[in-house]
Structures are given as C-alpha cells and as structure tokens.
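Handoff note, outgoing to incoming analyst
You'll be picking up this chain. Sequence as last confirmed:
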Amino acid sequence: MDIPSVKRATQTTRDDTLLPLTSAQSAAWFAQRMNPHTPDCIARYVDIHTAHGDDAINAEALSIEALRAAITQASLECALSTVRITERNGWPYQQLDSQHLHIHQVDLREEPDPVAAAHDWMCLHRSTPVDTNREALFSTALLIVADNRTLWYFRAHRVIADPAGVVVYQRRTAAIYSALVAERSIPTFRGLTIAHTVEHDRRYSSTDRFGSDHAFWAEQLSGVRAPISFAGKTAPASVATIRSTATLSPSTLEAVNAVAQYAGATVGSAVTAAFIAYFTRITGSTDPTITFPVTARTTMALRHSPGVLANLVPLRPSITESSTVADTLRQTRRCVADAVRHQQYRVDDIVRELGVIGPQATHFGPTVNVTFGDPTLSFGSTTAVINALTDGLVYDLTVNIHFDAHDALIIEFEANPALYGEAEVASHHQRFMTFLHAFATVDPDTTLNRVPGVRPQFQVIQ
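Most recent structure output, in case you need it:
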C-alpha cells in the first residue's frame, strides 16, 4: 500500500511568529516552573488488538506504516508536534515549528510478559520530568506486544493539550488511518487553529459574558470556607497515584439511572450527587465543596478543535446531613448546570478574588471527573480501546467516572500517595460503592444521615 506523504498545510506559521498562551496554558506553564520535577502531562494508550476470537484469522491486520503516517499528520494538524514554548523577557510564548516528530517503536514480544513490560515502559515515560522550554512537549510510541496487538501510547504536556483536545487528536488519527487503509481521500480537518483558539481566549475577558460569569462566581462563593478533604491535610501534587477501580453492578446502574431520571439529571450528575452526599457524611461538613473539571469549550467549533482551554470550577450545593436525597440530586443538578454555563471564568481568577493561597489554591476539595465520551476508536475494521493513564497531577482525591467499551459504568478513586495509603483509598472506594447503591435505592425523601452504607468510625480532622 502506498501511503501518501504528510501534508503540512495546517497549523503552520513563520518560525519567528510568537503567539501568546491561553490562560489555561499560562497557568500550566507557571505551575510547572514552580515544580519542575513533577511533570504535568496527559497520557493515553490505545489498545489496537486485531484478534477477535474465532474470527481472528479473518481480522484486518494493522498497517504500522499507515498508523505512523496518521499519527504524524494528526499531530501536525492538532499542533502537538509543532508547538514549542519560548521566553521573551521572562514571559512565555508559543511558537509553531516544523520540527520532526519521532515515533518510537518498541518491540516487546520477546519479554516474558509483554503487556506488563509495556505498562512499565509507559509508567516510566509518563513520570519523566519535562523541561517546557527546551524539550519536546509531545511524544508518542508504538509498543508491539503481540503479532496482532499494538499499544499506541502518547504523552502531551498540559501546556500544549487538555483532555478535550486529546479526544480531538485521537479521533483525527483514527479517521486518517481509516481513510489511508481504505485508499479514500482524507477528510478535511475542520478544527480551529491554535491562533484562533488564542484569540477566542483573549476576547472572552472583554465580553459581557466575562462580567456575568464574574458576578455569578462572586455570589456563588460568598463566605466559602477553606476546602476540606478526607485526609485533613495538604501535600504537593503528585504524578504517582494510588488507584482503586470498580465496575458498577447492573442492578446499581439501573437504580442510578432510575434516580437520575426521577430528578431530571444525568447519570454523571447523579453519581456526583452521591459522592457529595458521601463526602458530607464522612466529613460532617455543613458547606461541602468539590472540584469539577470542565472543557471551557462553549461553541461547536471549539469542541471540535485542539488547544488548551480546560478549567476547574467549584461545585457548592447547599446541603447538609439533614438534606434529603431528592434535595441533593436537585442541588447538584443545578450546580453542574450553572458550572457549565459559567465554565470559562478561570479558576485562577476565582481563587485570586477569594484570597485563597497555598499548594491547594486551584482546588476546592476532592475532584469529580465525569468523562462520558466513547472509549473506542475505529482503525479501519478494528475497534480499539482508549485507556487513560493520567489527566495530569493529582492534588488530593479524584473520582473518575466513565463508561468502558462494554457500556459498564466505571468508578475509580485516584489519590495522592502523600495523603492516603492504599488501604485507606480502597476502604473509601468500597464504602462509596456501597453508599451509592443505598443512595440510589432508598426513598428520595430519606435524609442523608439515614442513608446506610457509611460506618461511623471514620473521622476527618479539619
């Protein structure tokens, strides 16, 4: 198969042209400069397995040549392989460069356990520090673990990519690959350029929406207290984490769906409400606040574009242990809707106006990260599965909520090891799974302090 040469028509500019960073990029850059030995990166691997049981003999073989071409072109179009950061008078700018993308290819088939070896390789790579001013901010590799199985890995620094932009990149790579192997013309990339994304970010501060967002967050967070956590203390953010993962049982998922429908909420909002209720029960908080990641992409064009715009906003539902399940669901649904409506207002501006300082200044308590995108990609006739290794640094505790390739709901607790031990994370996770089932099945008029599933021996020092 003749793979066409990669076109360099997108995301290009003169080498001497400097672009400002978006607000989210600037925050990532300054944070990395303050903590240079802890890389703040997004890492993924896509499991491309062409064997499917008895039909494996007829499965379409993966074309490494086409995959390399697709990765190269998508990386260029999404400005992952071309952006570098440079300083002028101590201030960072981004510059589009025509640097060559090196795609590592590692054959692990001779290892005793090739998949374990691949995970060790990826873990080491994603944890390696990055000098944002001198080193490549994006890297990728093809890890061959079997004749019919390849793990496509990549790592992008948060100064050049956010989770929403990474989704655009993954899907663009798969679309280019599928077109190449089918010998079709490659569909036109319709994402905005980095220059357009920067301009969109710059214009926001002069719009009426900026003023209304400012007023909303000032009112929403009036009188807010310092964030609390299960740990009762703080620590620097960590790239290494402790994880505890479980699949929601079909009966619990059915109950969550039912209670979400009752409250006019989404499944993600219902699970978020249950976690806030659990957090309230464990800590005894009368003013629970959690951190909620948002894409800060408010137009269809932005949602189909790369770039760095993602934000963190607080959710502060007005609930206590005497609130009912129904109240908690409604309050959380309202908070999520308001957060999305006002998602562009930067977390840095919020904490500055609140006067919050310290290592946890950009967080408002535990993080609940709801990502309900399709976890699969189509490479020709092969369905590949996306696996998230990290979305960046973990400050305290993050609850990751997503569906797997079989439509099962996954709930994962990911914790900072400087704050939690493995047994503690596993215990919290198991308790929450039990509490979630009870939360979704009790009478909605039940108060939170009467929802079973939380034993009283837990105590958090505030």
